[in-house]
Design goal:
Elements lengths: L4 H29 L3 E3 L4 E4 L6 E5 L4 E4 L4 H11 L7 E5 L5 H4 L2 H4 L3 E7 H11 L13 E3 L2 E6 L2 E6 L11 E4 L4 E3 L5 E2 L13 H14 L5 E3 L2 E2 L6 E2 L1 H23 L4 H7 L15 H13 L2
Parallel strand pairs: 4-5, 5-6, 6-7, 11-13, 12-14
Antiparallel strand pairs: 1-2, 2-3, 3-4, 8-9, 9-10, 10-11, 13-15
Helix pairs in contact: 6-7, 7-9, 8-9
Bound molecules: zinc ion.
């Protein structure tokens, strides 16, 4: 189609107007919900306050939340969502058992029908909190799955996948199929050295395989939500961010393996660790790169 200059100006201004209208409508909706909310479209968005990023979905036919942060921030999330719907939340999904993703379950339990997670996630949450006073402030999943499960939200469907141990032994990703959004939990620390302790039953080696699998599973335009990000604007990202996280772990394992075969001790490797492509990488807590090296050494020694 050939456009005259006048037609071109007319059609581009209509287009720009349309985009502007869409964006301003979303930001107005966002402000209505309160602080910490960011919409992806009318029905789905994220919530960030303290701890792991929350993904939420609300429509007339169904509602779901992925991860729950802490009781105080979970309350702020719920206060916002109540402005959007009076219905009970059908599903609260947990990506893994860490407190900054599950402690808010306790607040949310009265507003949700089902708390769902991978069976290892549920077990680890119980083991880490079970017995004594801590247990009284926990709400555990009442539905668990092994490798895969599907959840119906009317016009939306959620597919959950647990492929391998990664950041922990019980990581799952949640794909909101029609919205084309995937919550990665802490399988991606975007632009950050990842938090990783071997006692959580995770594995650097299979974490790489998990990321490869997900990278191959979804197209380029899928939006990925990350548990944590160095840049708050990059909590939502792309497949490229999955590849970068994978490269970090691969370089870490490679470095530690070479040094270990050369006879270096865990302490020596931890003291000298440096990854060529990740110099000055942000640590979520001081010394996390050294801790990563020690955990890689322990995994390679098993
Ligand atoms: Zn975590």
């Amino acid at each position: 189609m050939l456009l005259t200059r006048r037609d071109f100006i007319k059609s581009t201004s209509i287009l720009a107007g349309g985009i502007l209208l869409g964006a301003s409508k979303l930001s107005a909706l966002q402000q209505d919900l309160g602080k910490g909310f960011k919409l992806i479209n009318d029905n789905i968005g994220i919530f960030t306050e303290r701890g792991g990023t929350i993904l939420w979905y609300v429509s007339k036919e169904g509602a779901a939340i992925v991860d729950s942060q802490f009781p105080d921030s979970a309350k702020n999330l719920m206060d916002g969502l109540k402005k959007k719907t009076s219905r009970k939340i059908d599903f609260l999904f947990n990506t893994h058992h860490h407190a900054d993703h599950t402690a808010g379950n306790f607040y949310l339990k009265d507003f949700v029908n089902t708390i769902a997670a991978n069976e290892n996630c549920a077990r680890l949450q119980k083991e880490k909190n079970g017995g004594g006073e801590k247990d009284k402030t926990q709400a555990y999943p009442n539905f668990t799955f092994k490798e895969h499960s599907s959840f119906d939200l009317g016009k939306e469907r959620v597919e959950a996948y647990h492929y391998f141990p990664g950041h922990t032994g019980g990581d799952s990703i949640y794909h909101f199929v029609n919205s084309n959004v995937v919550h990665m939990g802490d399988l991606v620390f975007n632009g950050l050295c990842p938090y990783f302790f071997i006692t959580d039953e995770g594995s650097f080696r299979t974490w790489i395989k998990f990321l490869d699998k997900v990278h191959g599973q979804f197209p380029n335009d899928t939006k990925f939500i990350f548990g944590h990000s160095a840049d708050p604007e990059k909590v939502i990202g792309t497949r490229d961010d999955l590849a970068k996280m994978k490269n970090y772990i691969a370089q870490l394992l490679d470095y530690v393996e070479k040094e270990k075969s050369a006879g270096k001790t865990k302490e020596q490797i931890s003291a000298s660790i440096s990854l060529a492509d990740f110099k000055g990488y942000v640590e979520p807590r001081p010394g996390m790169l050294k801790t990563n090296a020690e955990m890689a050494y322990e995994e390679l020694s098993r």
